[in-house]
Write a structure and sequence with these properties.
Layout (H helix, E strand, L loop, with lengths): L1 H5 L1 H10 L7 H35 L15 H11 L10 H18 L17 H22 L3 H32 L4 H8 L2 E2 L2 E2 L6 H17 L11 H4 L9 H26 L15 H20 L7 H29 L3 H26 L11
Antiparallel strand pairs: 1-2
């Protein structure tokens, strides 16, 4: 019974394709998996928009959406209808073809990343030996599509917003990739399935997740920071600086094409959160050996939703950074630490078992963090944050 619940979606797919001729069953199986991904994550996007708006309202002591449906639960449906029925306005001077293709390329590239994410035991669309490499390769297309949107709009606001977004995404993509390499070094594989399997072991009932090691904790922390910037989430949401750039690279978009940008941003947030859970939090494995009876896909989506909760919490808590702070932070602090963490992970790997490696690796990372933080504070003349209120 437990095994059936764990593999219920795999069994359901095999049962459905069993009605088809043997020659088309492989293609039908792939199409069913793709249809499931295309249905599940946009539905999760709709649910998350309600949770985020209600969560931010609670944090900011105000009322969230509560008019459409029971307690506002149908608000995403109303938003979708509004997006589909709004007029699609394209500037006369814009490049119409590129203007149209930009959001389409963005959504397609984001969806491609889901192809290699293991969402449960035996629940991955394509088990590639170089799955992580494929994920980052298709992710590069997002920078291209954002630049296409800003350039094709023929608007100074859109172009500046696109340039700023591309600069931010390229800068934070470096620590994102480098921090992920520590998981590759320890598992010895670029396959995301094998990375999860390498963590799916227990000692005294506790999991061997990479986050529970000094290099894994540091790598996950830097991955989380880079992820927040890559997803354009607060406090790194400068590409959408409404005070100086209106809406950034999609200022000249309206209707359904604007909704595609909004959708792709959340889909990218789900995807990159799922990748973080796969690399450092054991993917679909249970947090305790005694909880292995819970279906694996429940653990994967639980970790993903926990990440989304943290994203929402940060958005309602932290103020937006300035552009110089954003770039200095990654090039002078995050990137050097990620490079050092690679050395620490190699040291951990070759020191063998024992408490000595725990002490040495933790000490190296702690000393580097404190030294770089203090140096940055002195050079930047940072001090305690002060608040001023209107009289």
């Amino acid at each position: 019974m437990i095994e059936t619940l764990d593999q219920i979606f795999v069994l359901l797919k095999h049962w459905l394709v069993g009605f088809l001729p043997a020659g088309v069953q492989p293609v039908a199986g792939v199409l069913l998996s793709v249809a499931a991904i295309v249905f599940v994550f946009p539905s999760l996007f709709a649910l998350t928009t309600v949770l985020e708006r209600k969560g931010l309202a609670r944090i900011q002591n105000r009322i969230g959406p509560n008019r459409v449906g029971w307690y506002g639960i149908m608000q995403p449906t109303a938003d979708a209808i509004k997006s589909l029925t709004k007029e699609d306005i394209v500037p006369l001077s814009a490049d119409a073809a590129v203007h149209f293709l930009a959001p389409v390329v963005l959504v397609v590239s984001v969806f491609l990343g889901y192809a290699v994410l293991p969402m449960g035991r035996n629940m991955v669309l394509v088990d590639m030996d170089a799955g992580l490499l494929f994920y980052f390769a298709v992710g590069v297309s997002t920078e291209l599509s954002i630049f296409m949107a800003g350039w094709s709009s023929r608007s100074k606001y859109s172009l500046l917003g696109a340039m700023r977004a591309v600069a931010q995404m390229i800068s934070y993509e470096l620590p994102l990739v480098i921090s992920s390499l520590t998981a590759v070094m320890m598992s010895g594989s670029l396959s995301l399935v094998k990375i999860v399997e390498a963590q799916n072991h227990y000692t005294w009932g506790l999991p061997h997740w990479y986050i529970f090691t000094p290099w894994g904790f540091a790598g996950f922390a830097m991955y989380a920071v880079a992820t927040t910037a890559e997803a354009n989430r607060s406090p790194f949401d400068l590409p959408e600086g409404e005070s100086e750039l209106v809406a950034g690279y999609f200022t000249e978009y309206s209707g359904f094409k604007f909704a595609l940008f909004f959708l792709s941003e959340y889909l990218a947030m789900f995807s990159i959160s799922g990748l973080g859970a796969t690399l450092f939090l054991g993917g679909w494995s249970a947090p305790l050996e005694s909880l292995n009876w819970v279906p694996s896909w429940i653990w994967f989506f639980s970790k993903l939703m926990l990440s989304i909760f943290v994203f929402i919490w940060l958005r309602g808590t932290l103020p937006r950074m300035k552009q110089d702070q954003l770039m200095n932070y990654v090039w002078k602090f995050i990137l050097p630490l990620t490079l050092l963490n690679l050395f620490v992970a190699a040291l951990w790997r070759f020191m063998g078992e024992g408490w000595e490696r725990w002490v040495l690796c933790s000490a190296i990372l702690a000393v580097a963090y404190v030294a770089m933080a203090r140096t940055g504070m002195r050079r930047g003349h940072f001090g305690p944050r002060s608040y001023r209120y209107a009289e």
